[in-house]
Specification:
By secondary structure, the chain is α+β, with helices and mostly antiparallel strands. It contains seven helices and 13 strands. The strands form three sheets. The protein has a six-stranded mixed sheet, with no helix packed on it. A four-stranded antiparallel sheet has the order 7-12-9-10, covered by helices on one side. α2 links the parallel β1 and β2. The longest helix has 10 residues. It is globular.
Length: 253
């Protein structure tokens, strides 16, 4: 099997138009996958505070997927203002643009030579009233973590975009369009990374030099897949295609 880092770079280099010429089936996936509904009890005992999991066929968001199709978004929400965050680990910088401007221009600016604090990405920030209403049609995963309340967020990322390693509370992330590669380390295993370097830079310069015991949990998720990560787990993402996704963050109430 080709090393995951090299295969991911090959996929990115071969990207053309709206698709990629090579699938993600051969990339490493060493994260548990649950296909179909599991009980709340199993979720809590096996995963909630223990380890990540990929959930498949647990919700049906085909309606929401239709609602966030590219042409429909541009027609109905193209003039809506969205707030972009810098793609470094701490996402300090913010820029407001129209959704149409982001989709047509800013979404295609990420490269391995870019600095993450100079690259912007639509994810995880406050949404306009119009987009909040749109987001209300999303069906969140049917699992809860005691003492925590969910808050959904909508995001769109271009090929090669993503966020370098960081951590926060637990959450779920579902892909509606595209492919998203996830890498995770448990809270006691801080990865080696520069907070102002992009995810692509990490793949080029760090991943290929890792020893086997230093490598992360990782997997590529596709439409309908939901990845759950526990509290304070280090994670980084890389969009292998133009990607539309919803994240549900859990916070103490």
């Amino acid at each position: 099997m080709m090393a995951a880092g090299n295969l991911l770079l090959k996929i990115l280099c071969k990207h053309r138009g709206n698709g990629i010429e090579e699938g993600h089936e051969d990339t490493i996936c060493n994260i548990d996958i649950e296909n179909g509904l599991i009980s709340q009890e199993r979720f809590l005992s096996v995963y909630a505070s223990v380890k990540p999991v990929i959930l498949r066929n647990v919700t049906n968001n085909e309606l929401f997927r239709y609602l966030v199709g590219k042409q429909r978004l541009l027609e109905l929400y193209g003039d809506t203002s969205v707030r972009l965050s810098s793609t470094n680990s701490y996402s300090y910088a913010k820029v407001d643009v129209t959704l149409e401007n982001y989709i047509h221009t800013a979404i295609n600016t990420c490269s391995s030579s870019s600095f993450a604090n100079e690259t912007y990405y639509f994810f995880g920030d406050a949404l306009s009233a119009e987009l909040l209403e749109l987001l209300s049609a999303y069906k969140r995963p049917p699992y809860d973590v005691p003492g925590m309340t969910p808050a959904a967020s909508f995001g769109i990322g271009g090929v090669g975009s993503g966020v370098p390693f960081h951590f926060h509370g637990p959450g779920f992330s579902e892909v509606l369009y595209g492919l998203k590669h996830w890498l995770l380390y448990d809270p006691k295993s801080k990865p080696s990374f520069h907070p102002n370097r992009t995810s692509i830079y990490w793949y080029h310069n760090v991943y290929p030099n890792l020893e086997e015991f230093e490598k992360p949990l990782e997997c590529t998720i596709s439409p309908g897949d939901i990845l759950y990560f526990p509290d304070r787990w280090w994670h980084s993402t890389l969009n292998l295609e133009n990607c539309v996704f919803v994240s549900v963050f859990l916070a103490e109430y």
